[in-house]
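Reading group handout, session on sequence-to-structure problems. Before we discuss, look at one worked example. The prompt was deliberately terse, the way you'd type it at a terminal:

> structure DNA primase

The input record follows.
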Amino acid sequence: MQNLKNYAKQYAKRGFSVIPTIGKKPLIKFADQPALTPRQIDKFWTRNPYANIALKTDQFFVVDVDRHSDGEDGTVAIKKLSHPEWFNTLCQKTAHGGFQFFFKKPAERITQNIGFLPGVDIKAHPNNYVVVAPSVIDGQAYQWLNRKPMIEPADELIQLIEEKSKPKLSDKQLQTYNQEGMRTRTTELFEQIVNGLGPTGGRNNALAVFVGALLLRNVKTRAVLELARLANSRTEFALSDSEVVATVNSIIKKRIREKGGEVIDG
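And the output record:
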């Protein structure tokens, strides 16, 4: 029998928020609560030595691949992506033979998506959790398959998750409306968020101009980045997220210099 208390304390020591469970059911209230301290963990598992261990998905997200004989085999959907390099990260085998791939969570970009692919879920809500090794369910133990660090997800994987997370569009027709009045640059900026950055060859410049116009209108930098991401997501051949972030940072630095400020790289 594994010493689950020691495992739980080690997870906490590594910065994870530990949740005791019976099977997969939490034994404590954890939503929007601070993580258990090592002392609390010691006390809880001393009283409940067979409690399983779960980790809150507040700092990471999981691609959860199910394998059930009476349902979808998520490994088929993962293989069809033809990008094994995307999943070169920390991975465990679940008690029922599935796989869970652990990734560092990009700020504000990955959302919960149950049914991301056939047999594959994205567990990412800060108040969600996953059971981890060496917990046991139905007599079978979870098992870490490697000791790799959690990696940053590839931009293409993030874009796929975002695309699959979009709600299904309604087929209702838009109400017609004869618009009158003057169009402004602000009008064009709103429309660019929807229409995207234009064709290949002018995307980077269009993004730079778009970002500069938002900053000129005193839009907060975090909002500027998210609006830039939205506009990029509506572009037929989108830039990578790293290119978007780099461009936004570049224009922010330019504005700081124009105002006589000092650029401090973080």
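Points for discussion. First: DSSP finds eight helices and twelve strands in the chain. Second: Residues 185-258 form one domain.
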